[in-house]
Structure formats: structure tokens, C-alpha cells
Known about the structure:
Layout: E1 22-23, E2 39-46, E3 50-53, E4 56-59, H1 62-71, H2 81-92, H3 95-98, E5 102-109, E6 114-117, H4 127-140, E7 142-145, E8 151-156, E9 168-173, H5 183-188, E10 195-201, E11 215-217, H6 226-240
Parallel strand pairs: 1-7, 2-5, 2-10, 9-10, 9-11
Antiparallel strand pairs: 3-4, 5-6, 6-8, 7-8
Helix pairs in contact: 2-6
Keywords: Methyltransferase, Nucleus, Ribosome biogenesis, RNA-binding, rRNA processing, rRNA-binding, S-adenosyl-L-methionine, Transferase
Family: Belongs to the class IV-like SAM-binding methyltransferase superfamily. RNA methyltransferase NEP1 family.
GO molecular function, one term: rRNA binding
Amino acid sequence: MTALSGWHHSTRDQDDHDSMPQLPPIPLPPRSHNSKHGVYFILEKASLVAAYVGKKYQILNPDEHANFLRRKNMNPYDFRPDIVHEALLQIMSSRLCLSGRLRAVFIRTDEGILIKVEPQTQIPKTLGSFCNMMAELLQKFSIKSKGGHGKLLKLIQNPVTDHLPANSRKIGLSFSSPKAVQLRDYVTEANFDENLVFVVGAMAHGKIDVDNIDDLISVSGYPLSAGTCLRRICIALERHWKIQ
Length: 244
């Protein structure tokens, strides 16, 4: 009943433009040809589990589906799409994104589905609308921009490293890391000849996979939400790049 973890085996036509949902894009300034300075985000272990509840295909969340989940002997609080929703809102509303410095956001769900989100994607403000959009995405494989300017969200093949540029430095954030840093100092000392890729967990509990991480840092003596971590990263980069 759940999920499209085997979506890549489907014979559904991913380029079916007639049935593909559409979103209005956010207008962003053109990327400067002189600037190598940009950033990627990877949101790990996001809870975007879909199932048919009645006749409707929905993203499961504890507010709406607690009874359904209990009937299936599932803990409702393991299903937290609100975390990735908040994380995306923080990134997409940041001056970092609006200035054109964000290159892409990748979401890797706890079921292993990989999603690419383009910087001009307009994330719905309410959780319900966001969940509806993500359910559409899991069914249609992509959501394109109104006006025919390409796909704003799409399912892509793992691993995420295949979709990152060469010379990328992947930086994981974890409360348990012994390497405590001040983000402002960390980004100031970063080698910006490399592409910075920040990996943040989008789950209520657990740790990110550190197998492909180049550096693992802690930015607080207290556990922080994904949204708070991302806001701190964005502010540190905005200050470093003097984005007003």
C-alpha cells in the first residue's frame, strides 16, 4: 500500500506533459557567469511515504492519518513530512536562494527515493498543499513549470553523487559530531573552488549516512531541527557573500 520505492521499474511515461502537474516558478536573477560560488543541499531520510487512504493517494502524516497508521501497526510519529516541508521553506525563502546562489536541493526519502528540486520551485505554504504536491510528484515523476520552462521537481536515479558537479565537498551536519564549529568561521575558511554541498537530516530521529561525507560538523551544543540548521547555513553564506 505504501510508496513507490520501485518507481524506476515502472513503464509509466515520465514525459507525459499532458498529465504532468504544473507550478508557477519563482523568478530568480540569472546566474553570474563570473561566480563559481554556489551551494547545494541534500535533505536526507525525509518522510514522504505515500499510500492509498480510501481511494485517495496521500502522503502519510500523523495529523491526518493517525488512525489509519495505527490500524496498520505503524507509529504515527514516524511519519513526519512537516520536517522536509519546513526545511524547503527555509531554503527557498532565503536571500541565498533569491539571489541565485542556490544550485539545487536534493531530497532523499527514508525509502530511498531521490528527488531533485530546482531553485525556482515555489513551495506551498501549507503542509496539506505540500503533501498533495509531493503525492502528485510520486505518481507523475515530475512537476513542470507553467510556461514550459522545464521541470521544477523530478524523481531521479540514485546515487545523488551522480548529480553533483565534480570537485564537490559534502558537509554533513550532526549534533553528535565531535567537530564543533561556528558556521560563520567555517564558511569563511571554506575553499570556494569546491562546490559546497550541505547534508542535513530531515527526520525526527536518527543520523545521516556519513559514508559519502567529506566533513561532519556540529553547529550547536543542542539538537536543532532541520529548518533551524538550514537557516543558520543560509545566514552564514549570505553574510560571507554579502547578500543583502
